[in-house]
Specification:
Structural class: alpha+beta
Largest sheet: 5 strands, mixed
Strand order of the largest sheet: 6-8-9-11-10
Oligomer: single chain
Strand content: 15-25%
CATH architecture of the largest domain: 2-Layer Sandwich
Low-confidence stretches: 55-68
CATH superfamily of the largest domain: Histidine kinase-like ATPase, C-terminal domain
Length: 383
């Protein structure tokens, strides 16, 4: 699935680059052609002006036609050799009238755009007048056209990739739900059988202790099966004491942790903190975070859990003094399959985030982490 997505992205990116490259090439070709034609128009205009200074009536009529019809969109300013403005054409008349610096600004702009066309001064042939000109509206459109195409192509690629991601996530969710429900279904039969065997052991003298311990393990299997059965369906949320749920899970993990691992719980003086949760799924998240903290420590250290309310939110921090997470891996810890352990599927944190984010409409994220000093995970729930 990931390789297909990468291939799609590669194909789309290459297509976009090809389209934009061809567009830029063709647009530059057209821009150069139009720029050359506009220069020729200005040269014709200058020649026509020179003709109007002749006494030949036919030439004057022809030149007047060139002056009036050959240039209706190219902005231009005629100046002396000392930059005294003689006349201007195709500029915003309102700005010319209201802004005394407008012509000077446009003249500076035109000087930076094109080389001037020399215009002989009809009254003093020892001096030259100069015509500076800018780009027509059509030429500007053509120059900006590749940028517009690039934006459109980028939007198209973003939409397509978003659609592919959405489809992949939907498929992934269906796979997750199907696997979880199938697992719960497959566990049902052996669990029922084990319950029967436990009851038989209870009826046999001398097996009471064994039956009691096996009964705890069977209840644990029932809890796991129940958790998997809830994946993929909308769980029922009930107002529950979060402190009590966390205490129970910490007690469960503490009994299975090395002796040199200390557990602390800070509730900031609160004895009860209520939140809308699904208890079995919430316990699963806390169990995963505590186990993850244990795995991050080499059999020694401290795991601290703090619970407090703030602005109608319940904040639960699970902090360890383990090896920490490198900066490059922080963004990957919640991805399915990611793990730094030699054993395991890398699904615990991914499932935990899915349970909190999707089912409880809360947040689970890495609050802070520093290699060699530890990691803090934070859960945010609505109170």
């Amino acid at each position: 699935m990931l390789s297909q997505l990468i291939n799609w992205r590669t194909v789309l990116a290459l297509a976009a680059v090809s389209i934009v490259s061809l567009s830029i090439y063709f647009s530059n070709f057209l821009a150069q052609k139009i720029s050359l034609e506009e220069k020729q128009k200005i040269e014709q205009w200058v020649a026509a002006v020179n003709e109007t200074n002749n006494l030949n009536t036919t030439s004057t009529i022809l030149s007047s036609k060139v002056l009036t019809e050959n240039n209706k969109d190219i902005p231009m300013i005629a100046v002396t050799e000392r930059d005294s403005i003689l006349d201007h054409y195709n500029l915003d008349s309102t700005k010319v009238a209201n802004d005394k610096d407008y012509l000077r600004k446009k003249l500076a702009e035109f000087k930076g755009s094109n080389a001037p066309i020399v215009w002989k001064n009809p009254y003093d042939f020892k001096q030259n007048n100069l015509v500076y000109y800018g780009e027509s509206f059509l030429l500007k459109q053509i120059r900006y056209f590749p940028l517009v195409q690039l934006i459109v192509a980028s939007i198209f690629i973003i939409i397509v990739i978003s659609a592919i991601n959405t489809r992949n996530k939907s498929t992934q969710n269906q796979v997750w739900a199907g696997m979880a429900k199938e697992t719960a279904h497959q566990l049902g039969t052996p669990i029922s059988s084990l319950q029967g065997w436990v009851e038989m052991l209870k009826d046999t003298d001398g097996n009471e202790k064994i039956a009691a311990e096996m009964g705890k393990d069977v209840q644990r299997l029932i809890l796991v099966s129940d958790r998997f059965g809830k994946i993929g369906s909308t769980p029922q949320l009930e107002e529950t004491d979060v402190i009590l749920q966390v205490k129970n899970m910490m007690s469960y993990i503490r009994r299975r942790a090395p002796e040199k691992v200390n557990f602390t719980l800070d509730t900031f003086g609160e004895t009860e903190v209520l939140a809308l949760i699904n208890a079995p799924l919430f316990d699963w998240v806390i169990e995963n975070l505590l186990k993850n903290a244990l795995d991050a420590m080499a059999g020694i250290g401290t795991i601290g859990v703090s619970i407090k309310t703030d602005n109608n939110q319940v904040m639960i921090d699970v902090k360890d003094t383990g090896k920490g997470i490198s900066h490059k891996n922080i963004r990957n810890v919640f991805k399915p399959g990611f793990t730094t352990k030699k054993r395991g599927w890398g699904l615990g944190l991914s499932l935990s985030k899915r349970i909190i984010d999707q089912y409880h409409k809360g947040e689970l994220f890495v609050k802070s982490s520093e290699p060699g000093k530890g990691t803090t995970f934070r859960i945010l729930l609505k109170s």
